[in-house]
Amino acid sequence: MFKKMIDAFKVKDIRHRLGFVLLCLVIIRIGSQIPVPGVNSSYFESWFKQNAGDAFNFFDAFTGGSFSSMSILALSITPYITASIIVELLTIAIPALEEMQRDGEDGRKKLVAITRYLTVGLSLFESVAMAVGFGNQGLIPNMNFAKAFTVVVCLTAGSCYLMWVGEQMTEKGVGNGISMVLVINILSRVPQDLTSLYETFVSGKTVARAALAILIIAVILIAMVVMVVVLDGAQRHIPVQYSRKTAGSRMIGGQSTHIPLKINTAGVIPVIFASSIMSFPGIIATFMGKSNVGGWAGTVLGILSESNWFDRTRPVYTIGVAIYIVLVIFFAYFYTSITFNPLEVADNMKKQGGFIPGIRPGKPTVDYLTQILNYIIFIGAVGLTIVAVIPFVFNGLFGASVSFGGTSIIIIVGVLLETVKQIESMMVVRNYKGFLSE
Predict the structure, then answer these.
(1) What is the DSSP string of 273-321?
(2) Does this model's pTM top 0.85?
(3) Which of 16, 206, 244, 278 could lock 254 by a disulfide, CB 3.0 to 4.6 Å apart?
(4) How large is the greatest C-alpha to C-alpha distance in the chain, in angstroms?
(5) Residues facing residue 35 across a β-bridge
(6) Which long-range contacts (CB under 8 A, 24 or more apart) does 299-306 make?
(7) What is the dihedral of CA 318, 319, 325, 330, to 10 degrees?
(8) Distance CA 280, CA 113 (A)
(9) In degrees rounded to 5, what are phi and psi of residue 83?
(10) How many C-beta atoms lie closer than 10 Å to residue 262's C-beta?
């Protein structure tokens, strides 16, 4: 792979595209250090550490620490990701959007425009909620309408700017620009997490214990990366045979192909959905100033809080892991059901004269595809769950406070693999052009 990357840098067009992406990522990280006017960033960061617990940790990890420091990019790219998911889900429920999805390039442009408008709306809503929620708690000094308006405008503009930069990277760079923004934010927290691991397991320990701790951490990280790579590339090939047809005096068709079904059909979406739902009650309680409530409400918030899982002093809170696993598996099935329709695939095969060997066309084909799909979805969901839960076990049993969890690894590895594949495709196209021009 390293040789391919070196060869890619030798190509002028690819080198310029990679340079453009690198420049955009540097600009994003610079913007993440610019505080919102009228906000005491140091006070907000201190409040975040004392009161937020892990309610905002999931969100803060995706913003690269911009949220805890209350920079102008505090909302990051999450409103755009949420808007994209909402639009994709609505295409199943609203016939007009479903028709746009089938209209080719024109329909895609309309859906992109709708996603952009929805992103602005979500950014505005989140900015207002943050300005009002934090302002009422005295986190914005001398809160008034002018300061609230400034905060809302800065946060909304920052999120929209990241959306524009991400689209520019997709168009003029390499890979998916929105995913790149997410990856650079996650990677920016890695040094801090490594420092935390060093202070917890290595600093002050004997050489033998420190070496053993480093070895265990390295093995766990490597094992998780390998599992993510396997999940990303694993596929189940469904063989398809096409009947031979007579066209004039010639016989056409008769070729064999396959339907590739990815084991991890839903990607990282189930983990993101599950984590978001689990952290949502804690975020609402924090906004309302009731994050330290007692009684049954406090127990529920403790169960939903990832930082309390696998804590040996409070084992009841580990019930939340079971809820989390159920949510991950549920969303894996739910998201796949709206992105892959066995009935539609079977109908298209039947219209084109295709069939699965040993399976009759029509309903038997639908049932067969559904059965295979349910089987591989479960395998993929279990793999995702293992990768996502391992960091919780590590944090709960050993007290390692890190934001670099399984979700982050899944996103980073997935985006890097897709980017490398795109670079390889560009290299193949270049080689073909060179061959044809000779």
Answers:
(1) HHHHHHHHHHHHHHHTT-TT--HHHHHHHHHH-GGGTT-TT-GGGGHHH
(2) no
(3) 244
(4) 85
(5) 71
(6) 304/278, 304/279, 305/53, 305/54, 305/55, 306/54, 306/57, 306/58, 306/275, 306/278, 306/279, 306/392, 306/395
(7) -160
(8) 28
(9) -65, -40
(10) 18
Token digits of residue 205: 């320990």
CA neighbor of 396 nearest in space, from 319, 282, 293: 319
Q: At what angle do helices 12-31 and 2-9 cross, to 10 degrees?
A: 100
Phi and psi of 240, rounded to 5°?
-135, 130
- Torsion sign across C-alpha atoms 44, 47, 49, 52: negative
First to last CA, the chain: 28
Q: Cα–Cα distance between 408 and 25 in angstroms, integer?
A: 18
Exposure letters 120-150 (e unless 16+ CB within 10 A, then b): bebbbebbbebbbbbbeeebbeebeeebbeb
| Spatial distance between the Cα atoms of 47 and 62, rounded to a whole number of angstroms | 19
- Sequential pLDDT tens for the chain (438 residues): 566 667 677 777 888 888 888 999 899 988 888 888 877 777 666 766 665 555 566 667 777 777 777 888 888 888 888 888 888 778 877 888 778 877 777 888 888 889 899 999 999 998 888 888 777 666 677 777 888 888 889 999 999 999 999 889 888 888 788 888 888 888 887 777 778 777 777 777 888 888 888 888 888 888 888 888 888 888 888 888 877 665 555 555 567 778 888 888 877 778 878 877 777 777 677 666 665 656 666 677 777 777 777 777 777 888 888 888 898 888 888 888 877 888 888 888 877 777 888 888 888 888 888 888 888 888 888 888 888 888 777 777 766 666 566 777 888 888 888 888 888 877 776 665 554 444
> Which residue, among 285, 283, 321, has the nearest Cα to 303 in the 3D structure?
321
Q: Which of 202, 166, 205 is nearest to 183 (CA)?
A: 166
Amino acid symbol at 29 = R
